[in-house]
Amino acid sequence: MKTNTHFAFFDEGSKKEIRRAILKAVAIPGYQVPFASREMPIARGWGTGGLQITLSIIGKQDVLKVIDQGADESVNAVSIKKLVQATTGVKLTERTQESSIIQSRHRIPEVALTEGQILVLQVPMPEPLRPYEAKEYQTKILHSEEDYSGAWLMLFEQIMKYGQTATGADHPVYVNNRYVMAPSPIPRFDNPKMHQSEALILLGAGREKKIYAVPPYTDVASLAFDDYPFAVESFEGKHCHLCGATNVFMDELIDHSTGETIYQCNDTSYCMERLNANVEAEVEENHV
Amino acid sequence: MGYVAVKGGTNAIEASIERLKYDRIKDEEILEVNTILATMKAMIDHVMSESSLYSPLLAALAIKQAEGSMEEAVFLMRAHRSTLPRLYYSQTVESESMLVERRISASFKDIPGGQLLGATRDYTHRLLDFELIDEDQNHNEQWLRDYKDKLAEIKALDGVQYFPKVVDYLREEGLFKRHEMDNEKPDDITKQSLHFPASRSARLQVLTRGQTGAVTSLGYASLRGYGQVHPTVGEVRVGDLPIYVAHPNEMEQNEENEFYIGEIKVTEVESFVPVTVKNEQNESELEFEIGYGICYGQNETKAIAMSILDQCLEHPEAEFPTHDEEFVLLHIDSVEATGFISHLKLPHYVTFQSKLDSVRQVKKGGFKDEN
Questions:
Q1: With an 8 Å Cβ cutoff, are A164 and B361 in contact?
Q2: What InterPro entries does this protein's entry cite (chain B) (predicted)?
Q3: Which of A44, A147, B145, B282 lies at a CB distance of 3.0 to 4.6 Å from A207, suitable for a disulfide?
Q4: Architecture of domain A12-222 in this structure
């Protein structure tokens, strides 16, 4: 009993249903649209929300890039890529510039995205208010009444306790001056990239059954107080030990031979590209 | 260089999948799907119920592929389920039409139609049967012949016997409220995501596909103290229900035009729960309500626990987590719970780096403004 799977895994009816939720999400920036999330061949919590978006919008002409925590070769990114490619046959790439759809877990690439590209972010917890209100029924009311005092209080409490805000990744943002939104656990470093992004950003939470979006050229502001401004992770004075890049999000590593802490671009394809460019430049120099 | 954990992913995955296959077949034994179908009925029932896909054959295949891991087998079935087009809804089933294999009541000794113990492990002694290590086909065949001879001596009834519901009998006495027929179309939680407050139809759907262990343990928690439902099992019945679908085109719908598409085995439970109600004179009175549980296959523990939780969720006013529909319904799904727990194995380098930065900043500059 052998059966073939449909193009992009889903039947067309399912894709249409998901696309309808996406359209609504685009129409109401930052609003979490509930959708009938399907069970996928990869586990809940492993990118099923992002995957459902990708599969429902992908066409034969698309070029797909998948990254997990900045890396194209991370095991789960590979696994997702394999699944999409096996069911669609689309072209895969690691180059951000070449891709039309980028599915990512917890990073926005360093190379600025451009018009026509779609960034699909995988979301574990779509509800920015969940840390202080467990009930979905209540958070829905809070959003509809634009009652975000709890979100502000969370930051205020951190300032009272620690002298500054102490959020990690997933620092909440105000979208289009209306909805407070979880940007997914991207580092604070990536939050500003959402503001007036040229590319469409779609966020999918499979387990929590929500889709939301930041359409191109939308205002996105990280929650902060005037006297305690929003701050991204600091890599001051640090540079990538491979390509020498500064002002990018970096992984902290230990050089096993010297025991020293070294830094390396988290965005692996960005780093690779810079390394290749350096090599090319060297070659050219030596062969003039 | 220390950054191998998230690199070389393609090779690592391929090697890992090969290793998995090697581990499955290295002992050179092949388990036939038919063997699972014939001998692992309880497991098949659990898998079908938790995946909400009724297909013993596919469940057996999933069990084989998952090497017996329940969560994995359910996961496989659910993933397969989402590739299937959903063409019809079946007609409403009256569970009085069940071909009953087993039916007991803990409330009354003498229920109309009588008690029918059927096949149950309830009264077996749980001693390991070492003879099963060397089970012998000839011996089994002999046993089957003897059993059939014994059956032949029993005089069978003419015609099929259907059993009335125990609750009907109590309703006649006025101990249970008579409710209006509610013919509202049920929600379909697989087509529309759950919203709160949830309808009862949505709640029952989530409960019946809940993980057996999770449903059981929340039902138990409620019974033991973290809940206000103390039921008596009015009726447990196990048997086959015929399923019909309406003619897709025929304008005039009647039972004659319906198609029989097969039968499903289910366990159905009605629990009787005493509740205090106000009568017309505003005096407190005791009355019974029903907690309802049903699931694919024979899985009585789950169905009973479900009936407790159904009744709990009908009374959200009680201050217990087992009466809180978001707490119960959002945490009992096998695929969701196991998926999210296991996702913690994925790298969290970026998120951790971000948190690390926060902690360092706090350590460096905390309270510098005030002091």
A1: yes
A2: PhnI (IPR008773)
A3: A44
A4: 3-Layer(aba) Sandwich (3.40)
